[in-house]
Fold these 4 entries.
Entry 1:
Amino acid sequence: MMKSSKGKGFLGLVAILLCVGLFGYFGYDTMDDIKLGLDLAGGVSITYQAVADNPSAEDMSDTVYKLQQRAQGYSTEAEVYQEGSNRINIDIPGESDANAILAELGKPGSLMFIDQEGTVILTGTQVASAKAGIIEKNGIRENIVNLTFTPDGTSAFAEATEKNIGKIIYIIYDNEIKSAPVVNTAITGGECYIEGMESYEEAENLAATIRIGSLSLELEELRSNVVGAKLGQEAIATSLRAAAIGFLIVALFMIGVYRIPGLASVLALGLYVGLELILLSAFEVTLTLPGIAGIILSIGMAVDANVIIFTRINEEIGVGKTVRSAIKTGFSKALSAIIDGNVTTLIAAVVLFWRGSGTVKGFASTLAIGIILSMFTALFVTKGALYALYAIGFSDVKFYGVRKEVTPRDFLGKKKVFFGVSIAAIVIGWVFMGMGSASGGGALNYGMDFRGGTSTNVTFNEDMSLDDISAKVVPVVEQVTGDPEVQTQKVAGTNEVIIKTKTLSVDQRQALNDALAEQFGVDAELIIAESISGAVSKEMKEDAVVAVVISTVCMLIYIWFRFKDIRFAASAVLALVHDVLVVLTCYAVAKWSVGSTFIACMLTIVGYSINATIVIFDRIRENMQTKSHKETLAELVNRSITETFTRSINTSITTFIMVFVLFLLGVSSIREFALPLMAGIIFGGYSSVCITGALWYVLTTKKKAVKAE
C-alpha cells in the first residue's frame, strides 16, 4: 500500500515537473509573439490634420476622444493626442505596416441620412447603437448593420419618413452611399438598417465605426511612419533580468520559510509564469509598463494564496493533526479567503476593462488573466505537488513547520495612534497639493501624459540607435530644457528622431535647436517643434474615475454579500481610500511625476490592499463562529490580526522583492514607475494590519452603543 502511494506520488511529481518544463518552454518560446506597447516596442504613428481652418478647441477635443475609441480597436494601449492647433496624432503599438493601418483605419468619416432634396435628416450623433446582423429577403441571406436611434433621433426619423413615403432616403457614410431604401411607411420604432454589405465582417467593421459616432471634424492624412520604442531594448532587457532575479529571490524565500510547501509553491509559480506568457500571446494583450504592474500584482496574489494555505497547514499541525490531515484541512480553511480575495480583485479588473480606456484596459487585462491563473495554480497545482512530495517520503513534521499559538498583540490598543498617523499623512498631502496649486505649479507634478508638452522632430546626420540616443542626445536635451522626463522615438528607416519634453518657451526651443546643431551638426532649419496635448485626455481621466467608482461599489456589494455585514464592506472601502490618499501624499511631497502609469499604480495599490484586507476579515468571520463568552470583541479582533500577521508580512515581503529588484535594475522611467508601487505595498500592508480591523471594530461597537442607548 505504501509502495503504491509512493509510486503514485512519484508519477504525480514527474507529471508536474513535465508540465512546468513544457509550459515554461512554450511560454519562453511565445515571448516574441507577445504584443508590446509603444513604450517597449514602438509602432505606427499617423498624423491627421483638420480640413477646416481654425477648428474650435471643443471640436478638436471631441474628435481626439472618438479617435481614441477607434484606435483601441487595434490596441488598448493606443495613444491619441493633439499636436498644435489643428493636428491629431495616433500612435498604435505593436504594428509595423503604416499603409495597412491607414487602409483599415481609413479617412475618418461621418454618418448622415439625406432625403432626395439633399436635406440632412439625421447624423451619426443621433444613433444610439449599431450592430451587425443577417436578414433573409426572398430566400437570400443579406448582411446588414442594424441601427437604433436616440430618443431625439427616433422622433426626427419618424417625422422624416412620414414626409418621404414613396421616396428614397440615402444612408451615407464617409461620403459614400451605403444604402438607398425607399420609404414605404413611417418608421416610428426608432430602428432601421443599412444593407449592401459584402460580408458579415464588413458589417461588423462598419457597425463598430458607427457606434463611436460621427466625428466633429473632417480630417486628412498629413503623414504616417513607423516609430521605435520609447524606452529601448535596454528597458526590456533590464525588466526581464529583474523579473528573473526577483522570481529567484522569492523562490528561495518561500523554500527557506515554508520548506517543502515552499518548494511546492515554487513549482506552481513556475507553471504560472509559463501559462501567463502563453495566454498573453493567445489573447493578443498589448504589454506595457501598466500591464507589467498587473502581472506583478497577480504574482503577489499567487504567492499570497500559497502563504495563506501554508499558514493554515502550520496551524493545523500545531494543534496536533497529522501532516496529511493538516494539508487537507489547511487547503479547506484557506479556500474562502483565497476565493473572496481574488474574486473581489477580479470584479475590479472586469469593471476596469469594461469602463476604462488606454492604459487602464491594459492593466485590467493582465490582472484578470493573472488572477485566474493564480487561483488555479494555488488551489490545484500547489496542492498536487504537496501531496506528491508527501507521498514520496517528505512526511515528517520537520519538513512543514509547526505554528504554535501565539499571544495576541494589542493592535486595537494603538488604534488612536494609527488613525492619527494616517490622518496626519493625508492632511500633509492635501497641504502640499494646496501649496503646489497656489504657487502655480499644479497640485501634483503632472507629466507630459497629463499636461502635454513640446514635440521636436530632429533629422540627424547619422543613423543612431535608440540606446545611443538615450546615452548621447537625451542628456543634452535634459540639460537645455531642465526636463528629467524626456521621451524619444526613432522613425524607422530614417535618421529622424521625435523628442518629447515639457512645454518649451520660444527661447527654450531656440536654445535646444542651437545645442543640437552644435553637438551633433544637425541643420537647425530642419528642426520642427509643435505643442502637443496630453496623451491622457480629459475623457480618459473621466473614464478611469467612473471605472474605479463602479468597481469600488461592486466590490462593496460583493463583500457585503459574502460577509453578511456591511461594516466589513465599509471598512474595506475606507481602507482603500486611505491607501490611495497616503500614496497621493507621497506623489505630492516627493514630486513624483504623474504620468500614464500613475493610474495603473493607484489601481495596483487598490487591488493589493483589498486582497490583504479580505484575509483578515475572513479570519475575523471565522473566529466569530467559535468565539467564547469570555472573549471580548476587541480580543477577538486582536487575535485574528495576530493569526494573519505572518501572512501579511511575508506576502508584503515577496511582492516588495519583485518591485524592488525592478527598481534597482530598471532604467529611469521604470524606476519612477516602481517607486510608487513600493510605497503602495508598504502602506497597503500597514492599512490591512493596523487600520481595517480597527475600523471594523469601531463601526461595530458604535452600532452596538447606539442600540444600547
Entry 2:
Amino acid sequence: MKSRPLQPAAPATDPQGLPFSPEHGDVYHPRGGALAQARHVFLAGNGLPQRWQGRERFVVLETGFGLGNNFLALWQAWRSDPAHCGHLHLVSIEKHPLPRDALAALPRAAELAGLATQLQAAWPPLVHGLHRLAFEGGRVELLLAFGDVQDWLPELVLQVDAVFLDGFAPARNPVMWTPELMQQIARRCRVGATAATWSAARPVREALAAAGFAVERGDGIGGKRDITRAVYAPVHVETRVPPGRPAPRAVPHEAVIVGGGLAGCAAAWALAQHGWRSTVLDRHAAPASEGSGNPAGLFHGTLHGEDGVHARWNRAAALEAQRAVAHAIATQGVPGSAQGLLRLETTLAPAEMQALLDAQGLPADYVQVLDRAQAAARAGLDLPAAAWFYPGGGWVAPARFAAALLAQAGAAVRWRGGVAVDRLEHDGTRWRLRDASGATLAESATVVLANAHDALRLAGSKHIALDSLRGQISGLDPARLPEEARVAPKLPVSGHGYVLPALDGRLWFGATAQRDDPEPALREADHRHNLAQLQLLSGRPLPTDAAACTGRVGWRCSAPDRLPLIGAWPDESLGLGPLQPRAVPRLPGLFAFTALGSRGLTWAALGARVLAGWVCGSPAPVEASLLDAVDPARFLARAARRERSLSSRRAGPGPG
C-alpha cells in the first residue's frame, strides 16, 4: 500500500458550540455529549464491559478515530472494571487526523482529562501508516491507521471482537458505509463479534446484514430514536486465518529464544508485554556480545521517491525506535540521544529534496530539508552537502540498550549464557533444543531463532539465504588531534560513513562493509578508510595515520533484499507451494527474528512487536503488505514464482 499525503483535520465550532467538520458539513458528536454517546452507543451497544471480562485479549476495530472520545471512554471503562481483559486493543482508522496542538485544545469531560493528556503526549507525527501507542504498561494498545478506510481495511491483520462504526453521516460521507466496506470488516471479525453505530439508516443496516451480521435496533440517545446493533453470525462459517498470520495456537505462554543479541533481547521484551515468559539462550555470558556489541550506533528513518516497502518499513521502524530508545535513555540511563540525526544528500539539490518531501506530505516532526549551511550549523561540522534532518533519529549504545530491554521485561525473562544450541528436534508438540553432546538445553512449544546466520542451520533451510558483512568501526580521542582538525559533532551524521558525538571521551566513526570476510583482527587499512570518510564528513584535515585509532570488528547478518526475517518459519519439507508468502505452510511454533543487518537499532523495536504479534495472536503493528515483505516465507514464494515462470517458458506457446 503506497503512502498518501495526509490532510489534517481542522475542526470548527457550530452555532451550538459543537465541534464541526467543514469538509463533511457535520458535527463530530451530538448535543448530548461525546462521552454519553461513546458509553451508550459504542460500549453498551457492544456489550462492554461485560464481554471482555475473563478474556485474555479483546480487539476493537473503529472506522473513524475523530476526536478520540470513543478511545478515551473505552480506556476509562477498562480501567474502572476490576474484571477487565488482560490486553485491550483498539485499531482505529482516520483519514484526517488532528495535529497535536488541536488535539490538546479539545475540551474533555473531567473524568477523561488525565487520559487525554497521556494520549496527547503519545500522539505520533502525522505520517501515513500504522502507529502504535501503548498505555498501562502495554496492556492498552491503540493502533492508529492514518489514511483512507478503503485502503486500510484490506491491510489490517487482526481478529476483531467488537466494531465501532463511527463516521460522519452516510449522507455526508457515504464511502464510510458502503456494502463493500462492511464485507471487509466482516472478513476480520470472529464469529460472535458485535458491531454498533449511532446511525439507523436503512442502507447501513442492509449492508451489515448482507455481510453476515444479525442486525437489531436499539434505543437512541441525544435526540435520536434508534441506534443500530449487530452480531456477526454468518450462515456459512469459514475457517479463516488473517492474511500473513499462522493459525492461533493454544499453547503455554512461554518461549525459548535462541540468541541474546539485540534481536533476542527485544523479542523477550515484546513478548513480556503480552504476558509471555522467555528463556534466552546465548553462547556468550553477557547479552549483545557479537554483532550488537559496538560501542554506539545510529537509528533513523528513510525517504525514497517510490515510497516502497523499504521506505515504509524504515519509517515505521524509526518511529517505534525513537519511542523505545528515548524511554531507555530517560528511565535507565542508557547512553544515547533521540534528539535528531543528519543524513547527507549528495544526489538531489535542496529544492528537489523539498519537492520530494512535499509530494509525500511528510511532516517536519518526521523529516526536514536542510541546505548545506543549515546542516553544517546543526552538526557543528563543515559538511560537504545538504542533508535530511530526522528529528526523531539519534544514537544509542546497543549493548546497553539490549540490557535495558531485558531489564524492562524483568522476571518474565530468564537469561542463560554460555550455552550453544547444536540442533532442534520436534516431537509433534514441543521443540527440544540440544547441545553438541545431545543434552537437552530447553524445550518449548514456541521457539524464536534470533541468532543471525545460525538460524538457517538450526531450521535446516534450503531456500532462504543470508549474507555476512564484516564491519570495522574506528575510535579516536579527539584531544589527540591538532586544533584545526578537531571534530566535535553536535549530533550524529551519516552519509559518507557516519560519525557520532563523543562517547566516554572517544569519537566513533566508520564503518567498513566486506562481504564473506572472516578476519577478526583490526586492520590499519580499514582505519584509514574510516578516517578518509570522517574527513569528508567533517571538512577537517585529519591525519591519515591509523596508529591512534582503536576499534571493533563485527559481522552483520542481512538478507539479499535488505529487509529482516520476521515471522513463522516456513515448512520447507512440503516444497515451494504457494506463490504468496502469507499462504505458505509453517512449522508449528518456530519463529525467526534475524537479518537486522546494519539497521538493528532502527529495526529492533518494531521487529520485536511484529514478532510478538505473530506469536501471541495480537493485531499486527504493520500492514499485511509489510508483513509479507519481512516474512521468511517470501523466499519460498519467490522461488515458486521463478519455477513457474521457467516451467511456462520450457512448455512454450500452446497450439495456435
Entry 3:
Amino acid sequence: MKKIYCLLLSIISYHSLIAQQGAIFASAKKDSSGVFIGDMHATEQVESVGAARQYAILNLKKDLEGLDRSTKNNLLADVVNDRNLNSEIFTTYLSRLDKKYKGDIRSIETDNIRDIFQIDQKSEIKKRHSSVVSAQCFSSKNDGKFIKMKDLDGDDIVGFPLETFKGNSRYGLVENYHQGFARIKKDQVFGFLNYCGDETIPCQYEKAELFNDGKALVKKFDWYFIDAYGNESDILENVVDVKALRMGISIAKFKNGKFALIDNNYDVSKKPLSDYFDEIVSFNSELYRVKTGKSFGLIKIDGSTKIDAIYDNINSTTEQGKWMIIEQNKKVGLMDTDGNIKIKPSFESLININIDPTISAGSNLGIARDEAGIRLVDFKDLRTSKTYSSIGDFNRFGLAQIKDGKYVGFINLELKVVIEPIYSSLGNFNQFGLVSACKTNINGATKCGYIKFDGTEIIPIAFDEVANFSRFGLVVAKENVKNCSLPAGNCRVDVIYDKNGNLVIGKTNEAAPIGIKYATTDTLFNGSYIAIKTFNPTKNGDDMSVEYNLVERYSLRRITTQSYLSIKRYDSNQLFPVMKDGKWGLIDTTGKVIAKPTYKDIMVTTEGLYGVRYDNNKYGFIDKKGKVQVAFDYDEVRPFNNGLSIVSKGQGKLGVINRFNAKIAPCYFTEVNILPATKQLELVDSSGNKFVLNANGDCVTNCTKLDEIRKIANQ
C-alpha cells in the first residue's frame, strides 16, 4: 500500500476529454467523411505480427515506467529487443503486467482515503490496465496489418489501421483508439475494437461512451457499464443519459431530470458522487458549474462542493477560469475559484472582451458597467481603468477609443491612456498608424488633422476637413478662407500632406490663396509617379476641367510646378509630354520644363526627336532639349525610321528627310512606302514611276529618273 502512495509524488499528466460547456451530451466532431473521428494517420507501417508485439511491449513498458518512476520496477527488465517477438514470450510479459495492475487496483480500492489525487492515481492505473487487456490480442495473431500511430490521448500505440473501414457503408462511426479500444458504430449500433481490429465487444448498443478507466457506459434500452472484457454490469437504475468525463467519472441524467456525477462503481453503490443538480456543465479543466433552481455554484470532479450554489450566474473569464464573473442580486463582480470575492458584485454587467490573439496573445480584459459608466478590468491583476461614457473595440494597434463626457481619446491594452480624451471626434487608424482627429476651439469652430497612435500631431489640427489617406500615403486637407484671390472672396483652399507630415502641395499664395481643389488617386505613371487630380477655379467660381499634378511615389515629393490638363507617360528620354491651355510641351522627371507648352500637337518620340505642330499648323521636330531640329514646314510628318522620316507638303507631295532636315527625296511623290522585307523606301510619282532608296537614302532603282527630279528640286 505504501508503494502505491508513492505515486502521489509522481503523477503523470493525463489527457482529459471534457465535455464542452453547454453541450455536455453532444457527440464528438467527425472529420469531413462524416465517419472517422481523430487523427488516424500511420507514423510507420509494421511489417510483422512479431514487430507489432515488440512495439506494443515497448509502449506498455514506457507506460509502466512513467506511472511507477518513483520506484525501480523490474517487471519488464528482461524485455527482449526482438522485432519478431514470439507469442509465448509476449503472453508472459502481458500476464506480468495484468497481474501487477490488478493487484494495484485492488489495493487502492480497499483504502478509505478518497481525494482528487487518489482518484487521479487510480485513473492512471486503470487506463493502463485497459490497454494491457486490449494488447493481449497480439498473442493469438499469426499475421495481419498493423501501424504505429497515436491514439486520442496522443499516446504512442500500435494497432489495426482503422482507415481500412473507409468506404464501407456499414460503418457510421469509426473512432481512434482511446485507452486500448476504438469505438465504432456498425449497422446502427455501437461496439468496440481491440488493438488488433477485432470486434471484441460486439456492436449491439444503441449508445456508447468512450472507455473511461477500464469501463465504458453503454445503452441497450437501459444504461450499463461494460469492462475491458465485455462483461456487463447491472442496470444503472434511474439513469436516462450519461457523458463520460475522465478518471472513471461521468455525468449522469436521471429520470427525475436531475444531474449528478457518478463513478464506475455506481452499479454497485447506487450512490452518486455529488448532490443532485438541475444542470452540470464543464466550467474549466478542473471544475464543473452546477445549477440548483436559479442559482449556480461549482463542484470538483470528485463531487465535492467548491462554491455553494448561491449565485444568480457564474461565468469564467478568459484567464482560463482563474477568475469567475459572479452575479448576485442583479449585480456582478469577480471571485476566484476558491470562493474569495475579488470585486464585490456592484456592477450592472461584467463581460469578457474577445481580443484577436494576433494583436495580443496575453491580454485578458473585461468591461464593467455601472451607473457611472463603463470601465476596463484587467483580469490578470484586477486593475481597473477610469470610468468612461463609452469604450470601443480594440483595433490592430491594441487601442480602443474611449469617450469621457463630450471628448474622445484612446486607451491601450495595459489600461494606459495613450491619447487623452480631448478631441471632439477621432476616426479609425489607417494603414500608416494615423487617425483623423478633430478639436473644437474656444470660438466653437471645429478643426481637424491627423495624429499618430501615441498622440503626436502629424497633420496640423488646423483644417476644416481632412480626407482619407491614399494608399500611397497622401492626404488632402481643406480649409475655408475669406481672402481668396481666385475666385474672389470666400472659398475652399486645399493642400496636400504626406504620411510623415510633410507639406507636399501648399497654398499658391499664403496672403490671398487661389481656391484650388485636389483629389488623390491611385493612378501611377511609369510605376513611379502619382497623379493628383487638380481643379483650378475660374473667376466666377466654377471648376474647370480636371488637371493633374505629379508626385514622386517613394519620396512623396511634388514634381510638377503647375497642373496640366493632360500628362502622357514618360518615354525613353524620361520626358513627360504635358498639355496646358490646349498646348503641348515637355517636362522631365524633376518637373523642369524642357519645352514650353506652345505646340498644338506632339508625337511620341522616335529616335530622340518629337514631331510637333506649331501655331502655323505646320509640323517640325524638336529634340530632347526642346531645341527645334526640323523647321515647321510640313503638313504631316511620320516617325523617324533608321534616321529617315516621311513628310508631306500637301496632297500628292510626299518626300523623305533625315534628322537634319536634308531632303533625301523632295516632296514630289504621290506615295512613299516602307518595304517590309528590306526596310527600303519605295517612291511612286504621279505617272506611276517607282523608285527605291536604301536605308542611307541612296537610290537603288530607276536612279537616272530620280536624279533628274532631285536636280530640279535642288535648283
Entry 4:
Amino acid sequence: MTKRIYLALAIHNHQPVGNFDSVFDQAYREAYEPMVAALERHPHIRMALHYSGPLRDWLAAREPGFLARIRALAARGQVELMAGGYYEPILSAIPSADKEAQIRKLAAAVANDFGVPASGLWLAERVWEPHLALPLAQAGVEYTIVDDTHFKYVGLDDADLFGYYVTEEQGHTLKIFGSSKHLRYTIPWATPEEVIAHLQDEATEEGVKVAVMGDDGEKFGLWPGTYTHVWQKGWMERLFAAIEENAEWLRIITPGEYARTYPALGRVYLPTASYDEMTEWALPAQLSYEIRHVKHRLQAAAEREILRFIRGGFWRSFLVKYPEINTLHKKMLLVSRKVWAMPESPARAQAQDALWAGQCNCPYWHGVFGGFYLFHIRTANYERLLTAENLADAALHPAPQWVEHTEADVDCDAANEVLLSGDAANLYFDPADGGSCFEWDWRPRAYNLANVLSRRPEGYHRDLTVAAEAGQVVGAGEPAEELESIHTTVVRVKERGLERELYYDWYRHASFLDHFLPPDTTVDAVLRARFGELGDFVNQPYGYHVAEGPGTVALTLARDGHVWQGNTFCPLHLEKQVRLRAGGADVEARYTLSNTSGQTIAAHFAVETSWALLGGNGPTASGQVPGQTPFGFNEPVGTPPSEALSLRLGWLNMEIELSFSQAAALWLFPLHTISNSEAGYEKIYQGTCLFARWPLELAPGASWSVELAVRPHDLTT
C-alpha cells in the first residue's frame, strides 16, 4: 500500500497601519501578486490565505483586480480565506469587546470581497493565551494555527503534531493546528527536493496525517534575496511542480477542510506562548543574547533532549522591557473605554474604526520584525488613537472648549499619574518618575509630541560589536555566502561604524525633567549619556497638587531633593507648575528653586524637553534661535543664550515655539537607536532632546525662578 500524507499551507500577508505606500507596493509586486499568479498557474495547489485589514484596504484602493483574482480562486475551492483581527492586533492585549468586533469586521470583509465565509483565524504573531479560546469561539472561529513551540511546552513532540487538537475555555471549544518549525525553516530555504523528501519520510499507510506550515507571505519575495530566489530562479515553481508530480501520495488540502473531515488528535491546554524567536526577543537584553547562543551551541551538538526544555519569555514582558510600549498600550486601553462609552452613532462607529487601527500590533513589540523602533509606525498608531479620542471627547463633552484633570494609575504601576486634558492638548505626568511629562498630545493634529524613544541595550547589539571587532560585518550591498533569513548568523549593516554609536540612557527621556550639571558638561557628553548628574531629581518622586479654575488647570510638582556640592549633598526645594488652558494647545511652566541648605549651591540647572519630530533627520526639518543660522536635528547643536527657539517640520507643516523668561543656553541632540531587522542593522532617528540651561548660584535661603512657554503652530492655518 502506498504511504500518503496531507500538506496544508497557510500564508499570512500583512503590512502595518501607517507603513509607507512604497512598501505596500513593493510587497505586492514582489510577494503577494507572484504567489497568486503561481496559484493560477497551478490549479491543483490549494492553500489558506490571510490578508490583514490594512493590506486589504490598500489592495481595494490600489489593486482591486487582485481581490477579484483571489475571489475566483476561492470560487473554485483552491483558496480558503482566513479571518483575524481586522487591524492585526495582538488579541490577548486588547479589550474583549474590541477582540470580537475586530474579528467580525474582517470576517465580514472576507465574505464581501471573496464570496466565501472565513472559518479559520490567523493569530497575530501567534501570541496565544489560554483565555483566547472563549472570545474566538464566540466570534464564530472554527480553527486557528499556532507554532509547534506552543505544543512542545506541554510535552508533545513533532510526531504528535500531524493533525489538530481541541482546546476549550469555559466549555467553548476551538480547534488548533501546530505549524511545523521544520517546514517553516526549510520553505523556501532548502531545496524543493528536500522538502518533498521530508514529507515522504512522514507519510503513513493510513494516510491521514497532515503537515501544516503557516508563515508570513513576505518571506516569499520581500525578505532580502528572496524575490530572486523564490520567483526569478523558480524555487516556488519547482515546489509546486514537485507537489503535483507526487500527487499520488502527497495530498494538498486546506486546514479548514482537514478540520472538517478528520477527528481531532485529542484535547490540549496550551500555555502562553508565541513563536520561538518572539520568546527570545521578549527577554531582557542579556538573557535574549544568551538564550539564542545557548540554542545555537546545543543545536550544533545535537543536544535535542536539552533543547526541548529551553523556554524563552512572555510576550507581555515587552510592556515592561520598553516603558514607551506600555505608554502606547495604556493609551489604547484608555481610548477604548472612552469610545465604548459613546452613545451609538455614526461618530462612534468612526471612532471605533480609528481605535482598532490604533491597536495594530507592530509598534507594541520589538524583534527582527517588530515596528516599535520604526518612528512612523508608532506615530501612525498614536494618530489613530488620538483621532478616536477626539471623536469620543467631542461626544462626551458638551462644550467645544474645555479642560480638566484626572488622577489615576494609567500605566498600571500602583502609583497615580496626573492627566491634564483639554480640547486642544493632553499632558500626562508621572510624579513618581521625576514629575515628567511622558505624553504630550497636540489634539488638532492627532500627534503625540512626546513620542520619542530612549536608547537601551538589545541582545543583538553584542553580536554587532563582536562581529565588528572580528571584521566580519557585511555591508548593505555586499553579497553573502548563503541565502539570508532571520535564522542565519550573518551580521549585515546598512552603514559602517554603527557599533561606535551604541549609547544607552539611564533614564527615560521625557519633558520637564530637571538636571543639575557640572559647568564643564558638554553637549557631546549628554548625547552619549556619559555626563555627571549633581542632583537627585531626574527620575525621583515628586509630590503634587492640582488646581482648577475657569478654563484652566494647573499642576504643581515639588521635590525636596539635593545637589552635590564639593563633598556634600545640599538640600534644595524645586517646584514646577505646568498650566493648560481651554481652547488652545499652549503650555506654560514656571520653575522656582529654593536653596534650603546652609551653603551656596553652584551648578548649571537644565530643563529637558523631548520632541517627537517625525522626519527630523530630513531636509525640511530645522531649528532656529533668533538671529542665528538654522540648524538640522541629525547632529548635536549648542546655541548661545537665547530667549526663544523654534522647531520646524516643513513636510508636516508643524512648528513648535519655545520661549524663556531668562535667556537660556540650548543644547539639542538627536536620539538615534541601532536596531536590527531582516535587512540588517540600521540607525534610526527617534526624536530630539532639548536641554535649556542656566548657570545657577544660590546663596543659603535664596530662590530663583524661570518661566517657559510652548506654543505649537499648524503652518497650514
